[in-house]
């Protein structure tokens, strides 16, 4: 009788642990699939193209004074091809890579971000002056490394 009671307690403990474990896994999976940005720092590099926000790279306005640029670095270029943002507004860059380590470095600015497969990197920057800025890859990433660049147009 006494033995039986202990077995029940252990069984209950086991089930409880399983429930807790599954909840954590479930919540984590949900957060990764649905949270648009912020607070996220890991991503499955094989599923970048289908994981928000990278399933739709580009510029989006978050509020009156804030924009987000979602970009994917890959050998040997960046998605999207065309980036246009306003001067004088906060721009949050959200970057990842689908293959190897690249960088997302904007010439003449303090934006020098690592683009690492499996990781999401974010940086906020406000352009003072309009113009066309060069985006370069500063991490050696293979034969096309020296050609890996794009431009960002900052409008008034
Ligand atoms: Cu990409 Cu160097």
Notes on the structure:
The chain has 156 residues and is an alpha+beta fold. It folds into two domains: 34 residues; 111 residues, Sandwich (Immunoglobulin-like), CATH 2.60.40.420. The strands form two sheets. Strands 1, 2, 3, 5 and 8 form a five-stranded mixed sheet that branches. It has a five-stranded mixed sheet with strand order 4-10-9-6-7, with no helix packed on it. Bound molecules: dinuclear copper ion (CUA).
Give structural attributes.
156 residues; 1 helix; alpha+beta; five-stranded mixed sheet; Cytochrome aa3 subunit 2; metal-binding; membrane; transmembrane; elongated; Immunoglobulin-like; single chain; CcO_II-like_C; 38% strand; binds dinuclear copper ion
Number of helices: 1
Rg value: 22 Å
- Average pLDDT, all residues: 89
The CATH C-level class name of the largest domain: Mainly Beta
State the end-to-end distance: 81 Å
Task: Predict the CATH topology of the largest domain.
Answer: Immunoglobulin-like
Helix content: 10-25%
Q: Structural class, judged by helices and strands? A: alpha+beta
CATH architecture of the largest domain: Sandwich
| Total number of domains | 2
**What is the global morphology?**
elongated
Order of helices and strands: HEEEEEEEEEE
Main pleated-sheet profile: 5 strands, mixed
List each distinct ligand once: dinuclear copper ion
Oligomer: single chain
Strand tally is: 10
Function: Subunits I and II form the functional core of the enzyme complex. Electrons originating in cytochrome c are transferred via heme a and Cu(A) to the binuclear center formed by heme a3 and Cu(B).
Domain Cytochrome oxidase subunit II copper A binding: 62-156
Transmembrane segments: 9-31
InterPro entries: Ba3_CcO_II_C (IPR034214), CcO_II-like_C (IPR002429), Copper_CuA (IPR001505), Cupredoxin (IPR008972), NosZ/Cyto_c_oxidase_sub2 (IPR051403)
